[in-house]
Amino acid sequence: MRLPPLNAVRVFEAAGRLNSFSRAAAELHVTPGAVSRQIAKLEAFLGLPLFQRGASEMRLTEAGARYLPVVRDALERLRDGTQALASGGPETLHIWGSRFFIRLWLLPRLPGFQALHPDLPVRITTALPEDEPPADMDVAIGPDRPALAGLRSHKLLDRVVVPVCSPDYLRHAAPLAQPQDLANHALLQTPRDADDWQRWYALTGAPPVRLPRPIAFTSTDVAYSAALDGLGIALGRLGFIEADLQAGRLVQPFAVALRSAGAFHLMIRDADPLPPRIAAFRDWILAQLDSPAPSR
């Protein structure tokens, strides 16, 4: 059988991965109409529909869902082989994911991975939680999201938060001996944890008080940095705060911990076998979950 048109295949991969013709068009820098025409061209070549189109949504057909991981794997192998041939060296490992996770969890541990794989080039791209993984990423790290076609997910860390602040903040702030004392303190939060302070306080069983209006940040890592700088009290995630607690840069005034949605996952291509660089990173990062955080 003849090979399908390569450009149509590339457009199908983007549309299937993003589940949207318009988002695929934006990524590929073409019009939605051009995406639609390329999909129709590929469907005509295959003799069967790849998408079900509705008035307000579109989704892959059963055939499209089967074809997408095959296409992704073929394009990624073509990209990897081309890169290796052009560079004369090993393929680059492209890590894409949450800026918060990468800055506070991955980067302190990454020297250990580099020591094991000194000849493996690494490229890191940070993203916001709502961003879609790009086509050229090898591994993606982010919070809970709907399953993406062609990707396999491994849970890394649940979302468990506790109050943290800097010792310097406590030295200059009002007393903080019991949860109800939070009424006299500056609380830090992000849109993602907008209700977490109230939920955490309810868990303590303390008498009802009116908590102050929090200082809001658009990103979790900035809110965390503000806590380190002494601006107020933040809800810090277990798995990210231990090094700062051990070094005395943060203190945890209360032991009560709140578990909520938002676990971090590692997402990798659903291929067998995996390229060696991706398998090596997957095995390494999963092993790190049981290891203590390195000191900073």
UniProtKB/TrEMBL annotation:
UniProt keywords, alphabetically: DNA-binding, Transcription, Transcription regulation
Q: List the InterPro entries hit by this protein, alphabetically.
A: LysR-type_TF_proteobact-type, LysR_HTH_N, LysR_subst-bd, WH-like_DNA-bd_sf, WH_DNA-bd_sf
What span is annotated as the signal peptide, if there is one? none
Q: Which residues form the HTH lysR-type domain?
A: 4-61
Q: Which GO terms describe its molecular function?
A: DNA-binding transcription factor activity; sequence-specific DNA binding
* UniProt-recorded name of the protein: LysR family transcriptional regulator, glycine cleavage system transcriptional activator
Q: Which PANTHER family match?
A: GLYCINE CLEAVAGE SYSTEM TRANSCRIPTIONAL ACTIVATOR, HTH-TYPE TRANSCRIPTIONAL REGULATOR
A Pfam family matched by this chain, by name?
LysR_substrate
Species annotation: Falsiroseomonas stagni DSM 19981
Tagged with keyword Transcription: yes
A GO biological process held by the record: DNA-templated transcription
What family is this? Belongs to the LysR transcriptional regulatory family.
